Amino acid sequence: MHFIKNFSNFGDIWNYFRSKVIISSHGFNYAKSKNQILIHTSHGIPFKSTCLLHKKCKEPYSKYIDYQISNSEFTSAIYSQIFNLSPERIIETGEPLMDFLMNPDKYYATHELKEKEFLKLKRNEFKKIVMYAPTFRDEFLDEFPGAPFEEILSDFFNIVEQNQNNFFIICPHPRDLEKNIISFEKYMHLNNWELAKIPSEKYLSLVDTVILDISSFFYNALYLEKNIIFFFPDYQKYINNTGSIYKNFEIVPDEILFKKYSPNIDKILESYPKETKTKLLYLKDIVYGKRDYSNVNLNLYEFISQIIKT
């Protein structure tokens, strides 16, 4: 077995094209011979349409993906739509991500445990720990223009400033952060926030509330039964340019979808509505079903083993 993060040397290319089975994750550059089998996993259940990207691709994903790993009937319908895959090519073994969501402690590296302990201390100082995880903006892909990241950040810090009894962890997309790091300097006078120090998904089990927009983090937070708020100042512009798959925003309760700062956000952070929580638990059952996800890695291993033997 060979792990290839990117094709940085000839050895990576050699191992890739001599493999019988390729297991890829979302964002990988697909290419394979007719004798190879490509099994595709995702870093999260897609929430936004990738149709605009597909129109600009020379070849559709469906030409390269032999099997797409899925969690449930709900997620299979999403993958079928965005990758144009027939049902027999979508395998519901459960996605590897589920093992991480269920057992996060075994995935923390030693240096990441320091951040975990840091947040434990912050719980003694602040009422709640809140994670903000916006998706990428125009700093990442010209095909997906939203509002400038700095503008989005300014809107969000209205929430931070009005809720200084809570501690906020800001988890921008890495490329947005890289190009906009200077934008955070003007907010250094506030002491109730920090930039993420570990991968954003590793904060999920450590926080009370997740604030996001059109991101697959919604489904991760939904599974972990976190309080969820959608904060989406550039909603109309972003949706117009990307769309949203499977009518996702129709399943989001209206009372937690905000297109600008509102005092109602402060109220929800203070006390999450029980009715909204009930709606989210119902959505969790729709998205994930009643199945047991404790053996997702074993299920995937057995599926791959069968393919290798054929």
UniProtKB/TrEMBL annotation:
Q: Name one Pfam family in it.
A: Glyphos_transf
Listed GO MF terms: CDP-glycerol glycerophosphotransferase activity
- What SUPFAM superfamilies does its record include? UDP-Glycosyltransferase/glycogen phosphorylase (SSF53756)
GO cellular component terms, semicolon-separated = membrane
What's the source species' lineage?
Answer: Archaea, Methanobacteriati, Methanobacteriota, Methanomada group, Methanococci
UniProt name for this protein: CDP-glycerol glycerophosphotransferase (TagB/SpsB family)
Query: InterPro entries from the entry?
Result: Glycerophosphate_synth, TagF_N, Teichoic_Acid_Biosynth
Q: TM segments?
A: none
- PANTHER family from the xrefs? TEICHOIC ACID GLYCEROL-PHOSPHATE PRIMASE, TEICHOIC ACID GLYCEROL-PHOSPHATE TRANSFERASE
